[in-house]
Write a structure and sequence with these properties.
0% strand, mainly alpha
Length: 309
């Protein structure tokens, strides 16, 4: 029991994922600043932002359900943290004896988005309701192509649904991105996680200029701090999930340590460049993009995987 608590609270769970996620948030903001010819924030700015919110008063909306409104950010943080444990343990080659963890991770990664919807609906704010509606539509849009990407990975890994075995299959035969289907699946995965992380051009549920942060409009103080912390963790574990599925996972032998870090940073760089070079799209445009083009590419990746390409 003590080991499980350590995994959840310290490493590779809450504390570790929050620290690395905060660092990656700083990297994202620093790259963004350079693209815009600005200096950018100091290294500890994500920590300052979190602590500042944590020490402020949490304002409770008059309308809506107070309990549901307050518990939603807690559940979002729980979902992100437990996802980090299930994803990072295989990546760090820690044996857990858990088979079929890939299926569990698929569900766990949706917990933060679902709790944002619940919290927004419980706030009683009409703009939050608009954000919740957009969040639901986005989930229905990007989840299908993302699931198809995972199906192609399962096929290439010999029909296994174990994250450890997926990493082992790539260690034996090379990273899946080294194939045609792997390249296509990686392209689809990048756009899907861009939407899952609510980054431009798919930040539609939180559009600041339109609905004033949408799902998070009524949150403040410690509740908003938990949402920010959840976003830090998700910025780390979702790209790490892609590294696990398609880039061969992490290795900690000699120079491979640097290569493992570069894999993660390259994905963060791609996400940052996409969000800094594209305008926000409309919700119908985003849905059409995923349902038509991303689904088409994902189906092609599945077919090529079946053919061994």
């Amino acid at each position: 029991m003590g080991k499980e608590i350590f995994y959840f609270l310290i490493f590779p769970g809450l504390l570790f994922s929050a620290v690395i996620g905060g660092f990656l948030s700083w990297v994202d903001r620093k790259i963004t600043a350079r693209v815009q010819f600005r200096k950018g924030p100091p290294l500890l700015q994500p920590l300052y932002d979190f602590l500042k919110l944590l020490l402020k008063e949490t304002i409770i909306p008059v309308r809506g359900s107070v309990f549901t409104f307050l518990v939603s950010p807690v559940l979002a943080l729980f979902g992100a943290t437990i996802s980090a444990v299930f994803i990072l343990l295989p990546l760090f080659h820690i044996e857990t004896g858990f088979a079929g963890d890939l299926i569990v991770v698929i569900y766990l990664l949706n917990i933060p988005s679902l709790t944002y919807i619940i919290g927004a609906a419980a706030s009683g704010n009409p703009l939050a309701s608009v954000g919740a509606s957009r969040e639901m539509k986005m989930i229905l849009s990007y989840e299908v192509p993302l699931l198809l990407v995972i199906v192609s990975v399962i096929i290439k890994a010999g029909m296994t649904i174990s994250l450890t075995e997926i990493i082992a299959a790539q260690a034996a035969g090379g990273a899946f991105i080294g194939s045609i289907s792997g390249v296509i699946a990686f392209l689809v995965a990048i756009f899907c996680i861009q939407a899952k992380l609510a980054l431009v051009p798919f930040d539609i549920p939180e559009a600041e200029g339109e609905i004033c942060d949408g799902v998070a409009i009524e949150y403040s103080g410690s509740s908003l701090a938990l949402i920010k912390l959840t976003k830090y963790i998700m910025l780390f574990i979702v790209p790490s999930f892609v590294v696990l599925l398609l880039l061969g996972g992490f290795s900690f032998k000699g120079i491979d340590i640097l290569w493992s870090v570069l894999k993660l940073l390259v994905i963060i760089l791609l996400l940052t460049l996409i969000r800094n070079t594209n305008p926000r799209v409309k919700i119908d445009q985003a849905m059409k993009f995923f349902w038509i083009w991303m689904n088409l590419l994902a189906v092609i990746a599945v077919v090529l995987s079946i053919l061994g390409l």
